Amino acid sequence: MMDVLVCAAPGELKLEQRAQPTPGSGEVLLRVRRVGICGTDMHIYRGTQPYLSYPRVMGHELSGEVVSAPDGGELEAGDHAYVMPYLSCGTCAACAKGKSNCCMNIRVLGVHMDGGLCEYLAVPVGFVRKVEGVSLDEAAMVEFLAIGAHAVRRARIEPGQSVLVVGAGPIGIAATLFAKLAGAKVTVLDARADRLDFCRDHLGADHIVMLRDETPAALSKLTDGVFFDVVFDATGSAAAMQQGFAYVGHGGTYVLISVVSADITFSDPEFHKREMSLLASRNATLEDFDHVLAAIRAGQVPTKELNTHSALLRDLPATLPGWMEPSAGVIKAIVAC
């Protein structure tokens, strides 16, 4: 038997005992050691995740220790590994193009199916990757960092370009980090001073701007009325996503990392006048995961500063509500299983 944390309904977390999974053909049995808590998990807890049914075991930012693996592969018992949580089919039109991150039949651990807030998990071998040279805590942070890295890769940032990141939560932080590593001059916009300070002090953001009624004028002044070569939205707010169109300069690119259950509208004359490029950025690929791991190993990611909170699996029902309060100052919280 093993401990499993179940979100039975919005606002209701229960620690249950379930049978340890038996891996099927082509599956790895993983002893889960660390699970990062992200905005998706908090939306599930609140009941505001639109693509989910209850009960659900949350958790998709996973690292752990291999218990067993198929013979003849790269994984062996005792290996430390991370999990690629986007279980793609490998055969659809998107997968055929190498875009497994937007697979037509994708199943995401902790969203479409039960995830990693448990002691053991069986996962297809193709989605478990051995890690060396990073800690289990760091390996559990690779997934959210890869989402930001993927968005930056989508934007094809060139050194010296001006970039605006709107929203300084974990995904916006990841986009800020990898935009800086790509050589951009980065401005971060958010309503929380503590997160803006984090981006300046630990990520090297060139400018930080508090969200106010005067924000459009402030951004115009900052850029001499030209605005930005690339704008990333990581807010999860439809209103913010619509406002962001106004911050993209002529010939610029707008990348929507956020996804909301709403229609997004914009001015077509302004869109065409600027010959703007509009991009969606969904999940990440193995290329992005490898890029993140290389950056961590090179000391380019402030992992100790990112990991602000921790708890044991059995304590999460009492701990998670407090983490969701802005006053808690959570950047990345990691659960030990």
Q: How does this model look, in words?
A:
With 337 residues, the protein is of the alpha/beta class. It is built from 12 helices and 17 strands. The protein has helices at 39-46, 93-96, 136-139, 142-155, 170-181, 193-203, 215-222, 238-243, 268-273, 286-297, 303-306, 316-323, and strands at 2-9, 12-18, 27-37, 61-68, 80-83, 86-87, 107-108, 120-124, 128-130, 162-166, 185-190, 207-210, 228-233, 248-256, 277-280, 307-312, 332-336. The strands form 4 sheets. Strands 3, 4, 5, 8, 9, 16 and 17 form a 7-stranded mixed sheet that branches. A 6-stranded parallel sheet has the order 12-11-10-13-14-15, sandwiched between helices. A hairpin with a 2-residue loop joins strand 1 (2-9) and strand 2 (12-18). The longest helix has 14 residues, at 142-155.
Which labels suit this protein?
7-stranded mixed beta sheet, globular, 2 domains, Rossmann fold, 6-stranded parallel beta sheet, single chain, 337 residues, alpha/beta
